[in-house]
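Propose amino acids for all 309 sites.
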C-alpha cells in the first residue's frame, strides 16, 4: 500500500516507522530539523528492546514530490488539520482515503469540507509515543491499539483493507460497533488527564496521591460522559472505571498539559473547550469542566497572543 503520513511527531513517527518496517511504501511529509535528520539518517524507532531505523520512500516538505497515494494518515495537531488538508491535495485521486487521528470531535468534518467527506476514515490512537529528538521516536506499547472506522460505522472493503495493513505492521487495529462511543471515551479520558494535569501543574504520579484531586478527575470524566449522553451517545461507565484502575503511574501527562505548562498554544479548545460548549448548547451542568476550562483560558490566550501580559 502506498501511504503518506503528514506530521512526523511522536504519533506520526511511530506509525510511519512500523508501517515502513512492515514493507509498506511510506512517504513522510515533515519540515525543519525532523525532515533533515530523517533525510540524512533515517527514522529511528525505540520500542521496548527492539530499536530499528527505517528509510521511507520519500521525506519531504513538498507533497507534490510524492505523487498519488492510496492512504494518507494525518498526524498533525487539531489546529493544523485544515492547513494539512490543503497541502495534501496533490496526493489524492478518486480512490485515496484519508485517516484522521486528531483528538477532539471536529477533524473529520474539517477534512471532509476541504477534500470530500466520502474520502475520510475516522481514527483514534490509544497508545503513547514520545519524541526523543528529531527523527527518533519511542513507542510505549508492543501492540499499539488503533480504532478505525467509517463515519457511518459501515464495515467497508477499504476499511478492512486498512485494518489488515495496520495489523500486519504490528498494530492492534480495531473496528468498533460505534466509533462515536469510542471517540467520546477517548475525549473523556485525554481531556480529563490533560486538564487536571494543567490545572494542578503536576503529572498524575503526583496528583494521584491526593484523594480530593482524584475525586475531581473522576467527576471531570463523569461530566463528560453526561455531555455525550445529551447527544444520545452512551459511553459505558466501565470506561471511567478502566481509567481509574489504570491511572498512569509513569510520566502521566498529555500534550495539552505539556503545551500549557510550556506556554505554548494547546488543544484546549478541541478537548475540554468543546465539552464545555456542547454542554452549554444542551443545557448540561458541568461545574468541574467549566471551572478548569475558564481557569486555563488566560494561559491559552496569552500563548496565542490574543491578550497581553
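Proposal:
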Amino acid at each position: 500500500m502506498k501511504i503518506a503520513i503528514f506530521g512526523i511527531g511522536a504519533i506520526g513517527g511511530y506509525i510511519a516507522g512500523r508501517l515502513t518496517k512492515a514493507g509498506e511504501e511510506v512517504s513522510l511529509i515533515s519540515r525543519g530539523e525532523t525532515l533533515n535528520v530523517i533525510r540524512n539518517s533515517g527514522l529511528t524507532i525505540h520500542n521496548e528492546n527492539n530499536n530499528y531505523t527505517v528509510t521511507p520512500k520519500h521525506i519531504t516538505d513538498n507533497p507534490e514530490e510524492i505523487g498519488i497515494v492510496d492512504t494518507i494518515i494525518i498526524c498533525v495537531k487539531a489546529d493544523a488539520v485544515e492547513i494539512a488538508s490543503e497541502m495534501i491535495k496533490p496526493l489524492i485521486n478518486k480512490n485515496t482515503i484519508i485517516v484522521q487521528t486528531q483528538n477532539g470531535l471536529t477533524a473529520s468534518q474539517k477534512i471532509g469540507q476541504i477534500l470530500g467527506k466520502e474520502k475520510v476514515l475516522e481514527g483514534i490512537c490509544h497508545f503513547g509515543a514520545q519524541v526523543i529528538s528529531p527523527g527518533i521516536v519511542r513507542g510505549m506499547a508492543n501492540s499499539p491499539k488503533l480504532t478505525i472506522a467509517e463515519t457511518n460505522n459501515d464495515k467497508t472493503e477499504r476499511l478492512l483493507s486498512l485494518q489488515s495493513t495496520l495489523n500486519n505492521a504490528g498494530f492492534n487495529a480495531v473496528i468498533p460497533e460505534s466509533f462515536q462511543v469510542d471517540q467520546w471515551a477517548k475525549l473523556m479520558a485525554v481531556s480529563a488527564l490533560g486538564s487536571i494535569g494543567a490545572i494542578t501543574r503536576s503529572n498524575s504520579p503526583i496528583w494521584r496521591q491526593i484523594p480530593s484531586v482524584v475525586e475531581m478527575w473522576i467527576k471531570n470524566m463523569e461530566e463528560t460522559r453526561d455531555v455525550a449522553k445529551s447527544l444520545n451517545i452512551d459511553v459505558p461507565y466501565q470506561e471511567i472505571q478502566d481509567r481509574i484502575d489504570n491511572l498512569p503511574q509513569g510520566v502521566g501527562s498529555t500534550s495539552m498539559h505539556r503545551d500549557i505548562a510550556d506556554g505554548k498554544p494547546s488543544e484546549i479548545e478541541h478537548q475540554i473547550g468543546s465539552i464545555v460548549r456542547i454542554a452549554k448548547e444542551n443545557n448540561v451542568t458541568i461545574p468541574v469542566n467549566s471551572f478548569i476550562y475558564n481557569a486555563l483560558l488566560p494561559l491559552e490566550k496569552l500563548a496565542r497572543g490574543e491578550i497581553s501580559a
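The longest strand covers residues 120-125. The two ends are 50 Å apart (CA to CA).
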